[in-house]
Amino acid sequence: MCKIQIIGSRRIMEEVIELLHSLSVLHIDRTSEDVRRDMYYRLVSLQKDEVALRERAEKILQKIKDLILLLYRPSAPLIPPLEKGKGIHSMGGAEGFVISDICLEKFMSDFDVLEDKLRSLHKKRSELKDELSLIERYEMILKGLTPLIYEISGLKHIESTGIIIEKNRAEVIPLLEEEIHRITSGGYQIFKRELDDKNIGIVLTYQKDYDKEIMRLISEEGISEMILPMEYTNIPFFDALRLMLIKKEGIPHELSAIEKELELLSQRWYWEVYGLIGILEDLVNEFKALSYCLITNYTFFISGWVPEDYLPQLKDEIKNGFGESVVIRELEIREDEIEKVPVFIRNPKIIKPFEIFMNILPPPRYDSIDPTPFLAIFFPAFFGLIIGDSGYGLLLLIGSVYLLKVFREKPIIKDLMKVFFICSIYSVVFGFLFGDFFGINLERFGIHPILLDRGKAIKNFLILSIAIGVGHVFFGFMLSLINSIQWRRDREAIGKASSIVMLFAILLLVITLFGYISKEFLNVSVIIIAIALPVLLISEGLIGVIEFIKSIGNILSYARIMALGLASVMMALIANRLGEMSGNIVLGIIIAFIIHTLHIIIGVFSATIQSLRLHYVEFFSKFYRYGDRRYIPFRKIRGGVRLWRRL
Amino acid sequence: MEKAIIALAAAIAVAITGLATGWAQSKIGSAGAGTLSEKPEMSGNIIILMAIPETIVILGFVVAIMIITTL
To answer: Is A578 contained in some domain?
Structure first.
């Protein structure tokens, strides 16, 4: 990254800003404090009409950003250009869209009408959906009583009520009928309908005079009454049911009409609003850029950052556009500025998909290392070691290819599928090395595991996992050492070197204690530790020693590869054993299929999280220094539209 | 009898560490859920904090495996 300062004549400041905006390579930054304090420099102050324009643009931008959320995104892939003389925003000027028009009151009038219309449609839709879901709760009652509803509703002086009795209490019904007969002196009608497997719906109709006594009877006997929604409580029972039925049939049509109207409005307005958002964002960004500029009586200064590769192009464009009137100075990056340098992450195509895993972490500092390439190498390997089954790997391969095609318009899912595609290849390879295919040990077919049988050689698998941990942590320390040397952090470099030496010595000690090499190395390892420990203490202090001890724990943490791999083998074995135990080949396949499917889903999730965790916690902690500044160039969203000029 | 005690020892190693991990992660998870409702950008940190206590149960599992292999 290069720190530059662009200096030129004040007369052409706006043109330069416009050019920088279209080139989209400069990350504009505030000039350093010591320069700003110099009495000859001052910040650009906006004129009155510019302040009004900026405030109006910000206000409209906020409003239309809320507005676009109410519209559906049509499928048209390209933003249609704003055409001359067309659309409500063009005032017929020489360049079509005139930016100062946004200050006119009538500019927003169409948008205000559109917003009101959209909000009322969304509100109506939400109310109808709520009403429909409420009515659907009474599905059972409505379905059971539909034949009666049209017969009985609308009768005056007749009260009706609905009750629900469970089928296993059906013997209560004749007794209830007897009691009602007594109360109403025979002036009643009773209708019974089966609502579902467990319930019988009973509807009673009787003279209104007997209502109180009937209600008392129902409540005393503890019988469930059919209680309708609040808005129907004042309507007679069957009239209420009839209304609910009508609404249930009518609401889907109303919803469909609202959806059609929303789609039409979206087709008409979405891209116009989208285009306007782009223009207004560009305008607001140009005013922001102006606020970062310093001026004297005759010159302007713009400070910023540009990636080294883009600097020659920037210089050429400035020279072609303005000749000697504008000059670009490259400045030295001071040590205290290192953490302020914006970071531009750029990786080759094959590694780029792994950047999604880095997006949840803060960006690296400028003087740190981008760990994405290392993540791209080790993450699929850990994933493959944990899954370690050729069959699962093949399924994952097919699944990732299919989902890659289906979701090619969605960048995040596309990147994730590319990652899983690579991981599936590793899973197939490790599955072959471990001799596992859908939990079936290939030894049955004469194919012996090349690396180890995970189900049997548990101790060896544990040693392999710990060895991977040692290598990975070691590599992390090496990266840190190289980074410290590169940036001339000598004390830190010594500390990292002594950590590496101590790690090596401890490894030697462990191997000697376990008897893998001669006992003479015991003294050698102790001597190395005795020399390296004080060096570590002096260079990095007590924190360095604590961090080193933590690293031992980090190495042991890699045992999770063995733990999860073994769990994966056992789960697959269980799936196959349960299938075998069913006694029926078809049933057995179904059972095994269900358990294998569950296992794949959990396994993929678990392998991803644990592999990532090993990177984020155990690996990155050795060398990754967090920054907080990403490279965000001063970028024009909508090309071809001239924004504003000072008079 | 010896085999039973060894098996029991392995089971205890995993069970106690599993409980400890669950207890730790329950505290972290509820605090993390509260944090995420106010600051969704902290999701990366929360995932890492949730994953850290798993080392406890992994080490318990490793100890259990080492005990079992003596059977």
So the answer is: yes
